[in-house]
Amino acid sequence: MAFLDGDKLSYEIFSILESKFLFPLYTSGSTSPCTPPAPLPPASAGRVRILSIDGGGSPSEGLLAAAALARMESALRRGAGDPSACVADFFDVAAGSGVGGVLAAMLFTRGHDGRPLFSADDALRLLLAESRRRRGGGFASDGRTILRGMFRRSGGLFRRLFGDSTLRDTLKPVLIPCFDLTTGASFVFSRADAVEADAYDFLIREVCAATCANAGAAVELRSLDGRTRVAAVGGGVALANPAAAAITHVLNNKQEFPFAVGVEDLMVVSLGTSGCKAASGTAELVRIAGEGASDMVDQAVSMAFGHNRANNYIRIQANGFMSGNCTPKMTNCSKLMEGIENVLLSHRNVESLLFRGKKISEQTNAEKLERFAEELIKEEKKRKKNSIPTVVLKQVMSPRTSSATTATTFTTMTTTSTVSSS
């Protein structure tokens, strides 16, 4: 408690110094321009819930994020007393880069029944089942999974998962980045933009291929009306950790999030990658750059939350899980899932502290996920009692009919295959 009080005091002192000397506010009697304060949200307005999933250089890292999401989803179902509850029910925004973008698309794309195409558990089982189907299961001895390549094309698996669904067919705002070689800048695929104009609406299967593309094989795609063209390489290159981009999107999108003024009005779950150490040469440099950028984003976001981070921000990371020294050498899906969850969920992260550097977390990832699930359930219950909406989503004037109905059947078949083969 003393540490928390110290953090709060330090944060308040820094805020005063910042406002007085870095960004001075002028009074109405001053001859200098007056900067009106931002309107405060009503007391009954809730917090905007953001899910951010990192993108690594290998699809194997998606297994770790999927395992964390499956654990959180299980806790949400128990806490809410609803066995059919999904991750998408408890988040307002999903941002994902690389394989994280694929997971975000799987969990937040609308199915034929109006519900998410996948639960987190189904997404995890599908990744494991695909690994078995493609090369008999398991991981290569150097830590690279046999999943490599399954996320590099818009056809095949992606077509079976998403059909002809577009960004407009997502249940909540989704942000998936890539790097556009044509403009030499990052490009973020966004539901909010897609709803505004056909020129920014893309097929989800192509978006997923774009955010996973490697530098040597760019993915070229067009918007539905053909007006916007992108030559994409992976989101892991452009924006490995999309948490800051998601936060900025919410705080500046007043049409959909009218009462989100600062980080105290947000709840953020950020899922990191595995910290794979198996790469070499150029791939190793790219990995180091990506992980360094992700860590810097985590540190900056953690500092921004200050003393609010205990209840408003968590970061889940399992460093070194897919390294050559700790690669799980097993082909049974049930045992592999157990191994992933044990390593990931029992891990204690290194956390950034306000003005104190870093320290090992006092809580395991499992404890963090369970605790934050409780906060998400509290937020959901609070909203049901509020008369003021926390989120006002942009509506599609003429929604297209999603053709991703095959994904539900595909998921069920994959899950059954996984269970029976275990």
From TrEMBL:
Which InterPro entries does the record associate with it? Answer: Acyl_Trfase/lysoPLipase, PNPLA_dom
Would the keyword Hydrolase be found if you checked this record's keyword annotation? Answer: yes
Q: Which Gene3D superfamilies match?
A: Cytosolic phospholipase A2 catalytic domain
Pfam families attached to this UniProt entry: Patatin
One MF term from GO for this chain? hydrolase activity
Protein's UniProt keywords contain Lipid metabolism? yes
Per the record, the domain of life is Eukaryota
Which EC number(s) are documented for this chain? Answer: 3.1.1.-
The PNPLA domain extends over 51-247
Enumerate the Gene Ontology biological process terms.
lipid catabolic process
Stored PROSITE patterns: PNPLA
Keyword terms: Hydrolase, Lipid degradation, Lipid metabolism
Q: What does this protein do?
A: Lipolytic acyl hydrolase (LAH).
* Record family assignment: Belongs to the patatin family.
Q: Which PANTHER family match?
A: OS03G0784100 PROTEIN, PATATIN-LIKE PROTEIN 6
Q: What is known of its domains?
A: The nitrogen atoms of the two glycine residues in the GGXR motif define the oxyanion hole, and stabilize the oxyanion that forms during the nucleophilic attack by the catalytic serine during substrate cleavage.
Q: What is this protein called?
A: Patatin
User: What organism is listed for this UniProt entry?
Assistant: Canna indica (Indian-shot)
